[in-house]
Amino acid sequence: MKIIQILVVFIIVLMPNLINSEDFGDKFELSLDNGNKLWLQKRQNGFLITQNAINLQNNQAILFLFFTTWCPSCKQEYPKFSQIGIDYPNLRVIGVLLENRTKTDIIRFKNAFKIDYEIVTSGYEKFSKNLGGIIGTPTTILLDKQGEIIYKKLGTNDIDELNKAIKEVN
Fold first, then answer.
1. 39: how many CB neighbours lie within 10 A of its CB?
2. The predicted structure's pLDDT at residue 3
3. Residues 147, 45 contacting (CB under 8 angstroms)
Protein backbone atom coordinates (compact mmCIF):
# COMPACT_ATOMS: atom_id res chain seq x y z
CA MET A 1 0.00 0.00 0.00
CA LYS A 2 2.85 2.36 0.87
CA ILE A 3 4.44 1.78 -2.56
CA ILE A 4 1.19 2.71 -4.32
CA GLN A 5 0.98 5.94 -2.31
CA ILE A 6 4.55 6.81 -3.23
CA LEU A 7 3.87 6.11 -6.91
CA VAL A 8 0.74 8.27 -6.84
CA VAL A 9 2.67 11.15 -5.28
CA PHE A 10 5.44 10.74 -7.87
CA ILE A 11 2.98 10.79 -10.76
CA ILE A 12 1.01 13.77 -9.46
CA VAL A 13 3.83 15.92 -8.11
CA LEU A 14 7.09 15.03 -9.78
CA MET A 15 6.17 13.72 -13.22
CA PRO A 16 4.93 17.05 -14.66
CA ASN A 17 8.28 18.62 -13.80
CA LEU A 18 10.11 16.00 -15.85
CA ILE A 19 8.20 16.85 -19.01
CA ASN A 20 9.65 19.70 -21.06
CA SER A 21 6.74 22.13 -21.57
CA GLU A 22 8.53 23.67 -24.56
CA ASP A 23 8.44 20.37 -26.43
CA PHE A 24 4.79 19.76 -27.24
CA GLY A 25 4.59 20.05 -31.01
CA ASP A 26 6.54 20.23 -34.22
CA LYS A 27 7.78 23.62 -35.35
CA PHE A 28 6.03 25.14 -38.31
CA GLU A 29 6.64 28.26 -40.36
CA LEU A 30 4.47 31.27 -41.12
CA SER A 31 5.57 33.38 -44.09
CA LEU A 32 4.57 37.04 -43.95
CA ASP A 33 3.87 39.40 -46.84
CA ASN A 34 6.89 41.57 -45.97
CA GLY A 35 9.30 38.64 -46.36
CA ASN A 36 9.66 37.90 -42.64
CA LYS A 37 9.13 34.40 -41.32
CA LEU A 38 7.90 33.26 -37.93
CA TRP A 39 8.44 29.77 -36.55
CA LEU A 40 5.88 28.54 -34.06
CA GLN A 41 5.82 25.49 -31.84
CA LYS A 42 2.65 24.46 -30.02
CA ARG A 43 2.91 24.43 -26.26
CA GLN A 44 0.38 23.54 -23.59
CA ASN A 45 -1.57 26.82 -23.76
CA GLY A 46 0.06 28.75 -26.53
CA PHE A 47 3.12 28.86 -28.75
CA LEU A 48 6.87 29.28 -28.62
CA ILE A 49 7.57 31.87 -31.33
CA THR A 50 10.87 32.68 -33.02
CA GLN A 51 11.77 35.00 -35.86
CA ASN A 52 15.15 34.88 -37.59
CA ALA A 53 16.48 32.61 -34.79
CA ILE A 54 15.42 35.15 -32.14
CA ASN A 55 13.09 33.92 -29.43
CA LEU A 56 10.20 36.40 -29.31
CA GLN A 57 8.97 35.33 -25.87
CA ASN A 58 9.00 38.19 -23.34
CA ASN A 59 9.36 40.57 -26.29
CA GLN A 60 5.88 41.58 -27.38
CA ALA A 61 2.32 40.36 -27.40
CA ILE A 62 0.86 39.36 -30.78
CA LEU A 63 -2.70 39.87 -31.99
CA PHE A 64 -3.79 37.57 -34.82
CA LEU A 65 -6.87 38.14 -36.99
CA PHE A 66 -7.90 35.05 -39.00
CA PHE A 67 -9.93 36.22 -41.99
CA THR A 68 -10.99 35.68 -45.59
CA THR A 69 -11.29 38.30 -48.33
CA TRP A 70 -14.97 37.53 -48.96
CA CYS A 71 -16.16 37.66 -45.31
CA PRO A 72 -18.40 40.71 -44.63
CA SER A 73 -17.71 40.64 -40.86
CA CYS A 74 -13.97 40.49 -41.51
CA LYS A 75 -14.18 43.73 -43.48
CA GLN A 76 -15.48 45.43 -40.32
CA GLU A 77 -12.42 44.23 -38.41
CA TYR A 78 -9.68 45.51 -40.78
CA PRO A 79 -9.85 49.16 -39.68
CA LYS A 80 -10.14 48.18 -36.00
CA PHE A 81 -6.92 46.19 -36.22
CA SER A 82 -5.09 48.95 -38.07
CA GLN A 83 -6.12 51.38 -35.32
CA ILE A 84 -5.08 48.91 -32.61
CA GLY A 85 -1.63 48.76 -34.22
CA ILE A 86 -1.42 52.55 -33.90
CA ASP A 87 -2.84 52.70 -30.36
CA TYR A 88 -0.55 49.94 -29.07
CA PRO A 89 2.87 50.30 -30.76
CA ASN A 90 4.34 47.52 -28.56
CA LEU A 91 1.72 45.07 -29.84
CA ARG A 92 2.39 43.17 -33.05
CA VAL A 93 -0.71 42.81 -35.24
CA ILE A 94 -0.75 40.04 -37.85
CA GLY A 95 -3.55 39.09 -40.21
CA VAL A 96 -3.88 35.42 -41.11
CA LEU A 97 -5.46 35.09 -44.54
CA LEU A 98 -7.19 31.72 -44.80
CA GLU A 99 -6.92 31.64 -48.59
CA ASN A 100 -4.18 30.98 -51.10
CA ARG A 101 -3.49 34.31 -52.80
CA THR A 102 -0.56 35.68 -54.76
CA LYS A 103 1.62 38.41 -53.30
CA THR A 104 0.19 40.80 -55.90
CA ASP A 105 -3.36 39.95 -54.78
CA ILE A 106 -2.40 40.56 -51.16
CA ILE A 107 -0.79 43.94 -51.95
CA ARG A 108 -3.91 45.04 -53.84
CA PHE A 109 -6.13 43.80 -51.05
CA LYS A 110 -4.11 45.61 -48.36
CA ASN A 111 -4.16 48.82 -50.39
CA ALA A 112 -7.91 48.61 -51.05
CA PHE A 113 -8.71 48.21 -47.35
CA LYS A 114 -5.83 50.37 -46.02
CA ILE A 115 -4.39 47.46 -44.02
CA ASP A 116 -1.02 48.36 -42.54
CA TYR A 117 -0.28 45.21 -40.53
CA GLU A 118 1.54 42.08 -41.67
CA ILE A 119 -0.37 39.30 -43.45
CA VAL A 120 0.48 35.59 -43.28
CA THR A 121 0.91 34.34 -46.86
CA SER A 122 1.64 30.68 -46.13
CA GLY A 123 1.57 28.31 -43.19
CA TYR A 124 -1.93 29.22 -42.04
CA GLU A 125 -3.12 25.60 -42.39
CA LYS A 126 -0.71 24.30 -39.72
CA PHE A 127 -1.37 27.30 -37.49
CA SER A 128 -5.12 26.72 -37.69
CA LYS A 129 -4.67 22.99 -37.00
CA ASN A 130 -2.51 23.71 -33.93
CA LEU A 131 -5.27 25.95 -32.59
CA GLY A 132 -7.76 23.10 -32.89
CA GLY A 133 -9.14 24.47 -36.15
CA ILE A 134 -10.64 27.79 -37.13
CA ILE A 135 -14.38 27.20 -37.46
CA GLY A 136 -15.35 30.63 -38.74
CA THR A 137 -14.16 34.10 -39.61
CA PRO A 138 -13.23 36.48 -38.29
CA THR A 139 -11.42 34.78 -35.43
CA THR A 140 -9.14 36.77 -33.13
CA ILE A 141 -6.32 35.29 -31.03
CA LEU A 142 -4.22 37.34 -28.60
CA LEU A 143 -0.96 35.88 -27.31
CA ASP A 144 0.75 37.46 -24.33
CA LYS A 145 4.49 38.11 -24.21
CA GLN A 146 5.12 34.50 -23.17
CA GLY A 147 3.12 33.14 -26.14
CA GLU A 148 0.14 32.08 -24.02
CA ILE A 149 -3.33 32.41 -25.54
CA ILE A 150 -5.20 34.88 -23.35
CA TYR A 151 -8.01 35.95 -25.67
CA LYS A 152 -9.88 34.06 -28.38
CA LYS A 153 -12.98 35.31 -30.12
CA LEU A 154 -15.04 33.99 -33.02
CA GLY A 155 -16.91 36.78 -34.80
CA THR A 156 -16.59 40.54 -34.68
CA ASN A 157 -14.87 41.94 -31.62
CA ASP A 158 -16.34 44.18 -29.00
CA ILE A 159 -13.63 46.84 -29.13
CA ASP A 160 -13.82 47.58 -25.38
CA GLU A 161 -13.42 43.89 -24.53
CA LEU A 162 -10.49 43.55 -26.92
CA ASN A 163 -8.81 46.73 -25.63
CA LYS A 164 -9.14 45.44 -22.06
CA ALA A 165 -7.39 42.18 -23.00
CA ILE A 166 -4.65 44.05 -24.87
CA LYS A 167 -4.02 46.38 -21.92
CA GLU A 168 -3.52 43.37 -19.66
CA VAL A 169 -0.65 42.09 -21.81
CA ASN A 170 0.84 45.29 -23.19
1. 18
2. 52
3. no
Q: What share of the chain is helix, strand, coil (3-state, %, to 5)?
A: 35, 30, 35
Q: Is 129 left (phi over 0), alpha (psi -120 to 50) or beta?
A: alpha
Beta-carbon contacts of 82 under 8 Å, excluding residues fewer than 6 positions away, are 93, 114, 115, 116, 117
DSSP 23: -
Question: Could you write out the DSSP letters of every residue in 110-138?
Answer: HHHHT--SEEEEE-HHHHHHHTT---SSS
Q: What is the mean pLDDT of residues 14-26?
A: 52
pTM: predicted TM-score of the whole model, two decimal places: 0.83
**Maximal C-alpha separation, the chain:** 71
**Cα–Cα dist 1/38, whole Å:** 51
- Judge if the upstream peptide bond of residue 89 is cis by omega within 30 degrees of 0: no
- Within 10 A of 102 (CB to CB), how many other CB atoms are there? 9
Is residue 18 pLDDT above 80, yes or no?
A: no
Please give the single-letter amino acid code of residue 138: P
